Structure prediction request, 584 residues.
Amino acid sequence: MRLSEMHLKTLREVPSEAELASHILLLRTGMIRKLVSGVYGFMNMGYRSVRKIEDIIRQEMDAKGGQEILMSAVQPAELWQESGRWYAYGPELWRLKDRNGRDFCLGPTHEEIFTDIARADITSHRQLPVNLYQIQTKYRDEARPRFGLMRSREFIMKDAYSFDKDDAGLDESYKKMFSAYERIFKRCGLDCRPVEADSGAIGGSNSHEFTAISEVGESEIAFCESCDMAATLERAEVVDAKPTGSEKDFLPMEDVHTPDSKTIEDVAKYLGISEDKTMKALLFITYNEDGEKDKYVAAFVRGDRELNMTKLINALGIPEHAIEFADEKEMSAVTGCVGGFTGPVGLHDCIVVVDSELPGQVNLVAGANKAEYHTKNVNYGRDYKADILVDLKTLREGDACPVCGKLVKTARGIEVGQVFKLGTKYSESMGAYYKDENQKEKPIVMGCYGIGVTRTLAAVVEQHHDENGIIWPISVAPYHCIITLINPKDDVQRELAESIYTSLQGMGVEVLLDDRTERPGVKFKDADLLGIPIRITVGKLAGEGQVEYKLRRDENKTVISAEEAVAAATQLVSQESDGRIYLK
Ligand code: ATP
Ligand code: MG
Prediction:
């Protein structure tokens, strides 16, 4: 493609709403275009990279027996009502009505649709196992769409669904997808780590997220260097602190005046104790399926801990959207709590959820449910009890590994994919059964497997850029090579550039010819910004048949003959264009 003819609009200015490098660079290169918040289109260069990621996905999915289909984005509400997710998915589900008032949604994921296919088409064990997938546009009305393609409201996803006879079959299917995912992300040039994950709104038992390591990622993961424990912070178990005493150590409760001490930090300072000798209360209200206020919840963790919302939601067995922080005044009137001074003693008419380590921590300081007062020597069993006693805390760097006891580390990353063992959750609720060898009806055992195609694109840019622009891995670059023609009016230069252009095209190299009448500085800047992996500059040395050869990822420039440059580029592209080189 000649740049003089290409539809290309790069921006010099950093778009004001963009914070992440990937968002800034994808907008500046003109690869993506924002329509409204969280809704992006792909321009020619951007769409080429999207298709390359899709092709890698297709190859690896097909290699594991996946069969590609394409279902509609519009889905009837009835299917979601059958699975129970019309309610459970909450406000993220993009709902719409047709002219007759019938309810639909734009699919955020397709478990219901694929289960519907299975129940209609699969009747016998002879049809199992099977794996169907699609690459399709998804819709989620995210509360906070941000970071460009990272968290958008419309995005491209690959979603696959496996159907098996039994759990052993599902294990096999899951393993295949797991290994396909490892290969896909490597071939895209990503440094990615699989970690154990919570299964969230999708449901099911076992799940892993694939996290592209990045400081700016929204996922937090914990891992252990002594064993292979790796999990999202949402999911990671936390080992309870050692008990600090037992019943015989219990001291009598005593109220102390603690003016202006609403936070744990204030109280600990005021009383001259460490935060781990206190108890922290967090107050919530839940909503029922009709959206009405339902129950108050008081959750307690040790003062120095952070509450893990995912664990709380799982303990309560409610969806994420059905809980929010309580209005303290309203809650106080019903339950006896006092904002900033809430403790577990004497609370009523609310669900008390207590972190599993608190019973072992004796003589803690807790709010007295009385303004400006705390109570010393509060002890589990004697002074308060839990309705639910469960691990509620968030893992921190330096905590003990829940598997081997060594110290864990934490890191941030971008969730680019997730795999789930669904089991029979959807097949039972929606009636997808098959007949086994003995003609017995059994629910189909399912797995589901998602990759955010467009989020993967953003993650690649996040991991591969510098202050001048993108540095595409060859496997997902929109073009492999750019020929920068310094002076298009110079016949010798032009002819050499044209001949390199034709030769490279003949060798299957995807090549751009920058034949625009721009200053050389502008051309170099654009080549760097666009991140084209190989640059061949045709300038003053054209008369001697010499060019400058440079890789975007290296500082080095070499002056070589045009033939050598064509050979070098062709060789590099043949080695790296399918990304298999990154599998090693
Ligand atoms: P998140 O926790 O980031 O909201 P999720 O766990 O809800 O994501 P899944 O249901 O597992 O997402 O969807 C599969 C994949 O789709 C994710 O791993 C991610 O790569 C991608 N994805 C999910 N939500 C978005 C979004 N709003 N924008 C872009 N990609 C997304
Ligand atoms: Mg996920």
About this structure: The longest helix spans residues 167-187. Residues 109, 140, 142, 151-152, 155, 157, 200, 202, 415-418, 450, 452, 454-455 surround adenosine-5'-triphosphate (ligand 1) (CB under 6 Å).
